[in-house]
Amino acid sequence: MKSPRFAPVLLLIPALAAAADTPPRDGAPLENLPLAGFVEVTSLEQLGNLVVTDTKLEQSADTVTQRIVVLRSEEIEHLPSPNRNLAELMRHTSGQFVNVLSRNDANWGSYAGLGPKYNSYLLDGLPIDAFVDAMSLDSAAIERVEVHKGPASVLYSNYLSMDFVGNQTPLAGTTNFVLKNRIDAPLTRVSAGAGAWGSYRGSAYTQGNAGQLGYILSAGHERADYTPYGMSGSWLQTTQSPRYEKDKFFLKLNYALDRPDHTLSVFYQRTAHQGNMGRPNRDFEHHYDTLNFAYNNAFATDWHLQFKYGERRYDRNFANDAYPGSLALVNNENTRQTIRPADLTLSHRHGQGALLTLGVDAQWVDYETDVRGPAGSVSAENRAQARSTGYFIQEKIQLDQWILRGGLRRNTLEHDYARLGGNTPTTRSASWSKNLWSLGTRYNMAPGLAFYANAGSSFMAPAAKQIGGTVSSPSTSGELPNPGLKPESGIGRDLGMAWQPSRELAIDLRGFLNTLGDAIVTNIVSATPSQVRSENAGSARALGFELDARYSPSAALSLFANLTRTHTRVKDPSNADHNGTEIPFAPAELANAGVSLRLPGDIHAVAYYHWVGRYYDSTSRGSRQGFGHFGLVNARLYKDLIHNARHEVRLTLDLNNLTDRQYRMPFDFRDPGFNAFVGVDLRY
User: Which CATH number fits the domain that encloses residue 153?
Assistant: First the structure.
């Protein structure tokens, strides 16, 4: 399979300005095609101009009221990912602060001035955990990433995770990792590489077709001695190398029944991640299982039915010692969580490009945590279940240059608590119901020039972990309980312009205002041991703008830059220590710049600069710490050693954190500094 000779940095091509102006074979605009037979008359090039997240069905980018930035598979392959985390793919897009703590830990960043739980993650339209699954999923399974900015709470539900900071909501947006689905040619790929800190990685990938069945199969292994990634003297202090191993396996099957738009597909991934955090009794062993099942049927000329079901299983085990007093084993903590999302959506195309979307979604959650003592005794800490049901409807119509969109959702959540914080709780159950809404408009003033505006509401209930905590003793790291937490609600708004005056130049400007009531924030209570508590902080407000520019004068050179400025405030008059402070984990400024060019010797290079302004880890003036005010430079160089119709051999060199900035991060993490990785990739 021949790959492009040059994949320029296109992270910031405004998808809204890139209209799908190539007509299908019958000459009709894509948005006016009947749903039945849509796949048959749509070429790969035309599919590349479509986005799916806006309506759960393929739509031309210039009919979307919200801004969607699309990262395609060829771009993903050329993005450095020092921590092997899917969140790092979006590090250089505007509005997102990607803050991956280490190769063994989650992204703890922010979106449009809000914390890490206000941008949900989707896998082919079904919710996944933005903290855990970004660490485990394999980017080789991803065809493209659609970064959908602005409120998306009507078509997409919250993710009812009980781990990390709990529930996640698409108030600030949602990020959809779209799986590879259409296989047009067989491909086998073998990759291997080595780098700093005794890091080794190898993988094998194959795809093909057997009649109506398309398949993808992949397996990979990675190990490293790694290096200390915590502040000296903190709970992350090491006495030995923090070694780890990670194994990934995934399988994707897609079967066309009687026609290309009537399909069944299954995706399954298994990830095993084990190692130690740099001390004799700080082992960890995690297992993640991710399943997606999808049924699609364009059963009539303008009707489309899709049903999706998923399972996400998390089994996470940590060993704890008594550092700094002792390195002896204190206990083992085990967290088991199973989340089953389902979605049934019906789409009806009518009139001149109008699209009606309606359906129902649900989630079922089982969550439990245990603590095992050194002698083997096991005590139950948390036992909880959760259920959610959502009914949604959205209409989108086109009136000449105008796109108008409106939607409603009815959401119901139910929690049952059998055990919280090691005790039988007084409150055994809780339930909430909420009506949500979303509105949007877009005006295509001229070819390459559009204006848009959107607003929508969200709702988030506290998770069992936030209510019951995970701390089994005063000296244990984790989350302290807060049984008095109240649910929070929010409204997101944005206003923007997408302008592409020429094929070479594109400019985007987007302003946003996000507000929260009874905002649930995670505050750091103690550094040693590392302890946090979730609290209601009154109301919160994030006001800001994003400015993006991309210039590609030739196939050998592409440049981009973006700037995000955000002003955030928490309002809590009853608590002077918190009133008027900034929203945690939301930098005041973010800036990115990058270049992609072809060097002599047919070497291709991409380089990225990433600047992070000041941010804090808590709303408390008395205990919060300040972070930020640093810049990072990452680069990737690659050269095709062999490139012909049958084989391709590519050599790649990653140079991460070129200036060796070992900057501090929350929870006593720090970046370990400069590192390099060299790899070879064989395709045939």
Answer: 2.40.170.20
